[in-house]
């Protein structure tokens, strides 16, 4: 399978993919910063917004594995693990969005890290190793935003 590399300037989609990926960090960083600037009810609203966004992103990360599974179905043995793992980020995020905000953001930050650690193994098996650098950067900023946001509460 010819997988585009984030470092491959010839592939036209990599720039768009990178821009979209990094733009997805704007709500993480912006909401985490707002938590340090606000107090009272607005702070509670922003903490719920950050937790909800983290939960949505975790569901998206699981969906990526369903896409990988569908694309590679029948090509290799053992790729059914993508379908199995694909439901886990949503299931792990679900209790996180129900917790009190200070605990929720810590839990969701940890789940983001766990997802990256699983992806480090599964992306390699799927031939997606070149995307791990960007995936690491996105996870680092997203999880730190959750931890810093929790620290403001």
TrEMBL record:
Keywords: Membrane, Transmembrane, Transmembrane helix. The chain crosses the membrane at residues 20-38, 50-71, 91-118. It comes from the Bacteria. InterPro entries: DUF3429 (IPR021836). This is DUF3429 domain-containing protein.
């Amino acid at each position: 399978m010819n997988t585009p590399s984030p470092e491959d300037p010839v592939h036209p989609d990599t720039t768009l993919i990178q821009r979209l990926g990094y733009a997805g960090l704007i709500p993480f960083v912006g909401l985490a910063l707002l938590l340090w600037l606000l107090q009272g009810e607005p702070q509670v609203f922003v903490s719920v917004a950050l937790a909800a966004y983290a939960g949505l992103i975790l569901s998206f990360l699981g969906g990526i594995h369903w896409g990988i599974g569908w694309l590679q179905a029948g090509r290799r043995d053992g790729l059914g693990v993508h379908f199995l793992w694909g439901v886990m980020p949503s299931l792990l995020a679900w209790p996180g969005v129900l917790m009190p905000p200070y605990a929720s953001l810590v839990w969701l930050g940890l789940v983001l890290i766990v997802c990256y650690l699983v992806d480090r193994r599964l992306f390699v098996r799927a031939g997606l190793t070149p995307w791990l650098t960007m995936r690491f950067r996105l996870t680092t900023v997203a999880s730190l935003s959750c931890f810093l946001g929790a620290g403001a509460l």
